[in-house]
């Protein structure tokens, strides 16, 4: 019921803005997250924010199928 309301966009933009503040200590250099390999909607969302797939973790999820996850990363 909370999809397509802009909540994820606002949250991610807030995190990215806060993480790149010049006064932020310690300084963040990278953000990473996991996404289920079949979740095309999430993959497309994060790619719009310059996240890239950097690894695949087999069996990451224990109770859902497919159980594999991509690790996405973005340098700050």
From TrEMBL:
GO BP, one annotated term: mitotic sister chromatid cohesion
Assigned GO CC terms: NatA complex
PROSITE patterns: GNAT (PS51186)
An annotated Gene Ontology molecular function: acyltransferase activity, transferring groups other than amino-acyl groups
Gene3D superfamilies, A to Z: 3.40.630.30
Coiled coil region boundaries: none
Cross-referenced Pfam families: Acetyltransf_1 (PF00583)
Domain N-acetyltransferase, chain residue ranges per copy: 1-76
Keyword Acyltransferase included in the entry's annotation: yes
Chain segments annotated as transmembrane: none
Highest taxon, organism lineage: Eukaryota
InterPro entries referenced in this protein's UniProt entry, alphabetically: Acyl_CoA_acyltransferase, GNAT_dom, N-term/lysine_N-AcTrnsfr
Signal peptide positions on this chain: none
Keywords: Acyltransferase, Transferase
PANTHER family: N-ALPHA-ACETYLTRANSFERASE, N-ALPHA-ACETYLTRANSFERASE 50
Name of the protein: 12928_t:CDS:1
Lineage: Eukaryota, Fungi, Fungi incertae sedis, Mucoromycota, Glomeromycotina
């Amino acid at each position: 019921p909370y999809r397509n309301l802009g909540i994820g966009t606002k949250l991610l933009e807030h995190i990215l803005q806060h993480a790149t503040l010049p006064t932020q200590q310690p300084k963040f250099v990278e953000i990473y997250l996991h996404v289920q390999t079949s979740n095309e909607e999430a993959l497309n969302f994060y790619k719009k924010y310059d996240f890239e797939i950097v690894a695949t973790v087999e069996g990451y999820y224990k109770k859902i199928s497919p159980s594999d996850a991509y690790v996405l990363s973005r340098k700050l």
